[in-house]
Amino acid sequence: MMPRVPKWEGEPVTRGYVEMRKCAARGTDSLAADSMRHLHTRQHLGKAVVICEQPVVVLSAARKQWLKLSRTLQKQRASTLNADKILKYTHTITRMQHMRFSVKTPLEQPEVDVYFLTPDQLHIMPVHCWTVYLTCPASFKLIQSMILQLPTEALIVDYEHSLSWKELEMGSKSALEERVHDEWRQVQNFLQAYRIDIRDLSTGDMHNVEAMDNALDTLLGVSRKFLQTANEFQRALELARPFRIGRDIRTSYDIVMLLAHRVQALSPGAFTQRFLETYNEDDTFFLYDKARKKFAVIGETFQQTFTRHVKAGRYHLAGALRMLYER
CB within 8 A of 180, min separation 6: which ones? Predict the structure, then answer.
């Protein structure tokens, strides 16, 4: 196994990161639409703040765009019969419907998810605020004070373009995107060390079931190390969002996150939705109908599936399935 490269070695120390962004059209609605689409990709990170001159007006426009995004997902959910896609859509829609927006300060309403504040209200920032949208002029001193209260990997999205971010010791969002590439190389090195080739795990738009099962069996034998590596990659990806990548590399990302989801679900310890929120491909692996005592897609009983994996030498996978379904 190759040693892990220290994280971000040689990278300049920054107080956070900035993304220079413009709306395609002018007006409160267009600004709200762009910022809410941006926030939609980062909603699982933590809280967000929209700095604006008219918080009530901007909140109203933003809420309308947020509901529009939610309705789009509901239509996508209604158009599919795939149970896993329905589960993921439902999880995201439910979260979006419970997101709380407010023009109150964090001291007045600490439980809020997205704050709409004027520059004069920036004295106290919310805890775990990972995204800030700057949509109006603000003084250098106020922004400097705000930055000191943010996590060191927080992102400021600048629609105003009037501040010198270099003087504020802010790095470019491109540095966060480069981290994704660095962490992806770590994932590739890990898989190569265990002779797992991502290219073998999918055929066109379908997963190679046999190769996926073989990879899963191998990774279950080193589950803690693999989940740590996958978690570091996923965190880098979350911080860099929105992040444009080609279809082929996105498919590779999804395959690894799907494997991480399955390894996590089959490993002892608390299960979370973390990896489930990341990958975009189908996952019918865990659809086991306890009433019919069959796996929904392949139509096998547990004993048939267990025997098949044992015969193929996938002892880690067979044992994990036994622990999961014979409890």
Answer: 233, 236, 237, 240, 243
Please report the DSSP string for 208-253 in residue order: -HHHHHHHHHHHHTTHHHHHHHHHHHHHHHHHH-S----HHHHHHH
Name every residue whose Cβ is closer than 8 Å to that of residue 248 and which is 6 or more positions away in sequence: none
- Round to whole Å and give the CA distance between 279 and 123: 38
The 101-102 sheet, strands edge to edge:
101-102, 114-117, 47-51, 129-134, 155-158, 17-20, 171-172
How far is CA 39 from each of CA 226, 280, 327, rounded to the nearest angstrom?
Answer: 29, 18, 40
Distance CA 235, CA 151 (A): 14
- The Cα–Cα gap between 138 and 236 comes to 29
Over residues 74-111, the pLDDT tens digits come to: 998 898 886 657 777 888 888 899 999 999 999 999 99
Q: For residue 202, what are the β-bridge partners? A: 207
DSSP SS3 for 84 = helix
Model pTM score: 0.82
Q: 206 phi and psi, to 5 degrees?
A: -115, 150
User: What backbone torsions phi and psi does residue 36 show, to the nearest 5 degrees?
Assistant: -75, -35
Q: Alpha helix locations (H) across 41-153? A: 55-78, 83-98, 140-148
Which of 233, 287, 242 minimizes the C-alpha distance to 260?
A: 233
pLDDT tens digits for range 144-182: 999 999 999 999 999 999 999 999 999 999 999 999 999
Q: For 215, phi and psi rounded to 5 degrees? A: -65, -40
| 289 vs 307: CA distance, rounded Å | 18
The answer to whether the peptide bond before residue 242 is cis (omega within 30 degrees of 0) is yes
DSSP 196: -
The stretches of 122-222 forming alpha helices (DSSP H) are: 140-148, 173-193, 209-220
Tell which residue, 9, 4, 20, 32, has the closest CA to residue 174.
20
